[in-house]
Specification:
7% strand, Charged multivesicular body protein 7, coiled coil, Snf7_fam, 3-stranded antiparallel beta sheet, 71% helix, flat
Length: 461
């Protein structure tokens, strides 16, 4: 855990209320859960603890003794209500004992159950001991290491995002993962156990050259939980461990080679030719060994890539086999297809015969309906023509009644011409222009009009 020095200066810069003398005097006073403003005091000091642990200490583990007596002193005065804040945070499970939490993260469910029973017995013992004066009655020891659960979840989420591959699961060596999580091994171990609890990672262990090698298998993005550990995962851990050992050995050899070259350079400056030659021989020897280690590491990396490719091939093959089985289960044979097509052709032929039979009767009825419709249209046209003729005769009679005497002879002669034209038309001559006036004249003489003649011809037919 980081040093608690400089907490007051950090709060003066980061928390404006810390510099308000009046408000801080009220915050430093003692309070209990029965006070009406207890929730306000609790949220303030809880926020202060989270702020210091997250931004200043960068830790998820705190010691209750430092929080109570050292960390949050202001002007030499320590807050008197921090005991109640820690007790309430522990009651709300925002603080948990480091030892109890690590015990609950055990991979064996049987072991976990035993740990839970032991924790229950420990809590009861702590309460009794608190009543006797040895420990706090809340179950929190004065020197207890407590874990801030909110910060632990934040850090676990961040690490999970960093190590989770975009597609497929991966296997990593444990030690580099722990170093990437936190410099403090206890903090790193705590985050790792939180990821184990979430089923986002699984421990992979194998033995190489009589030495245990550990790694973690990380679930892919989108997977609800990490798959079970397989022999291929253990082989990957073995290969990565050997490759890492070769790389570290190559780096060490290159450092020794560089030192030998510098020694040779110094010997040549001092005119010590024999020492320079010995150092150059060592340089060549160590440089060649380092190059050989790098070559071996490259071969192991290539082999590891082939193992990954083999797993991908296996997954694709399994998917193809599943697809083939599904296709075979849903495939229709040639005989079934031919029988189905024959049934379809027979049904279509029968349906077409029925449609042809129905269509013939419908055609006869349609001809009769069309004939009746033509007669109705002819009658309507004849009625319309008669109405038009009547409308034109009436204005002409009015005009004759209002005509001047000088025009009587001209009208009479015109009438004679029209009558003669009517006679010629009845005899078979072509109808002259002005058929509308001739129709009026025929109607006036009682002669049949052209529409009446067409109707009579149609009736005779």
């Amino acid at each position: 855990m980081s040093s608690t020095l400089g907490v007051e200066e950090f709060l003066q810069r980061s928390l404006p209320e810390w510099n308000d003398e009046t408000r801080m005097q009220a915050r430093l006073r003692a309070f209990s859960t029965q006070d009406e403003n207890f929730e306000s005091h609790f949220e303030f000091w809880r926020g202060v603890i989270l702020l210091v642990a997250r931004a200043h200490l960068q830790a998820t583990i705190i010691k209750t003794e430092e929080v109570r007596n050292v960390m949050f002193k202001r002007g030499g005065l320590k807050p008197l209500g921090l005991d109640q804040v820690l007790v309430e945070m522990h009651r709300r499970r925002q603080l948990q004992s480091f030892r109890g939490l690590m015990g609950s993260y055990d991979r064996s469910w049987i072991r976990w159950s035993v740990v839970q029973l032991a924790r229950s017995a420990t809590v009861a013992k702590q309460v009794v001991g608190g009543l006797l004066g040895g420990e706090d009655a809340s179950g929190i020891r004065l020197d207890e290491e407590m874990v801030i659960m909110d910060l632990l979840k934040e850090r676990a989420d961040k690490v999970e995002t960093e190590i989770t591959p975009a597609s497929g699961h991966t296997v990593l060596l444990l030690d580099p993962v722990l170093l990437s999580i936190h410099q403090n091994p206890r903090e790193a171990q705590l985050v790792l156990h939180e990821l184990l609890r979430r089923r986002r990672v699984a421990l992979v262990s194998t033995v190489a050259a009589g030495k245990e090698v550990r790694g973690v298998k990380v679930a892919a993005r989108g997977e609800k939980r990490v798959p079970a550990v397989t022999d291929q995962d253990r082989q990957r851990v073995h290969l990565k461990s050997a490759m890492r050992g070769l790389e570290e050995r190559a780096e060490a050899l290159m450092r020794r080679a560089a030192e030998a070259r510098e020694t040779a350079h110094s010997a040549v400056k001092k005119k010590d030719r024999a020492l320079g030659l010995r150092c150059l021989r060592r340089f060549k020897l160590w440089e060649g060994a380092a190059r050989q280690c790098n070559d071996y590491a490259a071969k192991l990396e290539e082999l590891l890539l082939q193992v990954d490719q083999a797993e991908v091939t296996q997954q694709v093959t399994s998917a193809l086999q599943a697809g083939v089985q599904t296709l075979r289960a849903s495939t229709v044979t040639l005989e079934e297809a031919e029988s189905c097509m024959q049934q379809v052709d027979g049904a279509l032929t029968s349906h077409q015969e029925v449609q042809d039979t129905l269509g013939l009767g419908a055609g006869e009825n349609s001809d009769a309906i069309d004939s009746e419709l033509a007669e109705i249209e002819a009658e309507i046209a004849m009625e319309g023509l008669s109405l038009d003729s009547a409308k034109k005769v009436k204005p002409k009679k009015d005009a004759e009644a209002t005509s001047i005497p000088g025009d009587t002879e001209a009208s009479a002669s015109q009438t004679v011409v029209q009558i003669s034209s009517i006679g010629d038309w009845q005899a078979g001559a072509p109808e002259p222009s002005g058929s509308a006036e001739l129709s009026v004249a025929r109607a006036a003489q009682g002669a049949p009009t052209k529409g009446e003649n067409m109707q009579s011809e149609r009736t005779s037919a």
